[in-house]
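Quick look at the format.
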Amino acid sequence: MADSRYQERFDPKLISRQTNRRLVLNGLIALLVTIVIIVAGVIAFPLTQNLDGRAQWGNLDGFSSLATLAIIIGGLIFAYFEHTQNAVQRSRDSAQASMNLYKEVDRRLNDPAAIEARRWIIVNVPVRNQMGATKAVWMEAVKRILNEVPDGWEGERPPGKENLKAVLICFDFIGFIAQHYWSMENELVEWMSPLVAKIWERVGEFVEDEARRRNEADYYRAARDFGNYCIQWRREHYPDSTFIEDAT
């Protein structure tokens, strides 16, 4: 027996078959209602006879009106069922679109290069509050760390800047999705906020300063909004986390 948890899973072919079956069923129901009303009118027609046993054929106008009414009622019933099924289909399409977004976000977050970039920032860039320094001193320390070129490095830019850029691109995409396609709350923000907040509390002020220096208010705007939101959410719901050297 199939697991009931998966009976409503998204399957385009299955949904197509179900939609066709329901369309036919709805049509049959509407047709049946129409026929029942018309048959009921035909059965009731003899009741309109005169006392001499002759039918009052003038009442046929009323019968034709009844048939028209039956067709209208059948059409309304069909339209109602069709509207209901369309609403269900739209709901499923929306759920599938949301799942596709989730998969894309998950793919970007768990890409090995993205994981390594976040890991580099967590290991090398200090949190200002934990560093116990003024903002100016902390900013200089972060700039020095990001611009440091290790021995044997052959890239055009220091690894710190490359890692920060990779993180910003990833967070900017997720932030844009959160602003325009997802309602970032409850379980979703609880799932997303830990790794985002850990990174943003290390680079957030630096990125904001970079936006000011460039005079670009839209410099990774979605990433900045998303990072600040996750930090604020974590502060309201959980205590500050602790960095562990040998953590996975």
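Next, a different chain entirely:
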Amino acid sequence: MDALLFWTALWLAGVGLFVYLMITLVRRLVVRFSQGVEANVRAAESIVNDECVPEAWAAPYRQQIETLRRTVGSEAEIERAGRRGHKDCLRQLDRLVQYFEKSNLVDSAESRHVLLTGLQRQRERWVAGGWQYVIEREYDH
């Protein structure tokens, strides 16, 4: 009888631990998902409304270029870092466009069209402006 009680208690403890771990995992996934959604919405807002590159996208490259300038990096190194940042920002913008093409967060087809048109318009500006326009441009916001 004592053995049966012990194994039952152990089984219940195992099930309880499993349920606790699953709840914790689901909570973390929900938080991570919501942070991703929020980051995408903020990035789109920054690009379309403020007409600027999201700071989180450009900051690492701005920092790298500033460090190269402080440490007397060659113009070729600065150019490479800028081009790399430009390419990465365009890649992130393309991912953002794909996200909003498929996302259910947009309330209507018209809103989706306006958003995607604004993102595409900014992409064209970023391509035409080159890395200096995207990475080094000072924004008034």
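The mean pLDDT is 91.

See the schema section for token definitions.
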